[in-house]
Amino acid sequence: MENLNHSNIEGYRSGSVTAVAHSNIALVKYWGKRAVQNNLPAVGSISLTLDALYSKTNLELKDRLDQDIFVLNEKEVEGKQLRRISDFLDLAAGTKDRPKAHIESENNFPTGAGLASSASGFAALALAVNDRFGLNLDRISLSALARQGSGSAARSLYGGFCEMKLGTKEDGSEDVAIQLHDQSHWDVRLLVAVTSTQKKELGSTEGMNRTAQTAPFYDEWIASQPTDLEEMKKALSARDFEKVGELTEHSCFKMHGLALAARPPILYWNAATTETIHRVWKLRQNGIQAYLTIDAGPQVKILCLPESVETIKEAVLGVKGVEHIIEAKPGTAAHIVDPEKEIIL
Ligand code: PMV
After folding, report:
1. What is the pLDDT at residue 109?
2. I need a surface site. Which of 75, 145, 182, 195 has the fewest CB within 10 A?
């Protein structure tokens, strides 16, 4: 894993800290790694941070423990999942010789079901360890740290609209996220049509690696990404909803088409996913500005403007298999909270 600059370490802190980070949805997708070492993405990406979906993580360092304790949604986690957390803490501390941590984390939405729980989870964890390890990392360095937990986590450090940069260096120092616009830039809405709360069968890392190794159009995917990113940045600055929507759908279907061309093929959708796609397109034919995107799971995320929310909800809730809809607005940056107080979305 990449070496972070630890020259600012002030020392470990006692007591606990609580951090909140919101999930994010990629409008221009990340799919594929240019190096597994340091978890370096093969393409840049652009996202929207979502207020309604978040992880809340409490961390306390404890000298007496001989291994980290990680409790996720009130259940203690062991094995591979715990190792992923412990490796992340070793990396953040710059050593394995560190106090162990007791971490309690909760997501206010289904975990591991294509709703970017690893994005909000690792962003909150990065913020919490930064505080308790006394790292004094700035946002950009925090995004590089979070990226090593999960690629999309780098983007959850920021509120509003954000870009994950594609670097060229092996050490990953350029593969960082920056904010494009804060949450007040544009009052768009993202409706998440939940079609299943089951954990996905194929994780995003395995899905990406299989795609990179076997999909025949993978090089074209990489080559066409810079144009999508540039066009999206322009459209977001201009608040051009139609263009943002069109680019969002294009990037989504390009990614899923590519994954389908892997061997064996990768398909994250279920019947309700497909039905919802058609419903959104039908709405558009009827003059409602609604555009969709889908991640490594069966949920359909619909980008729209506030005035269309109710019409879209009604139409999509009528699709067989759509369990419920979560409505999100642009969310705030990851932040430290007082655990007793209400969360600021
Ligand atoms: O950060 P990961 O490894 O969970 O990968 C995220 C992949 C997508 O959600 C499908 C796309 C993206 O850019 O968030």
Report:
1. 81
2. 75
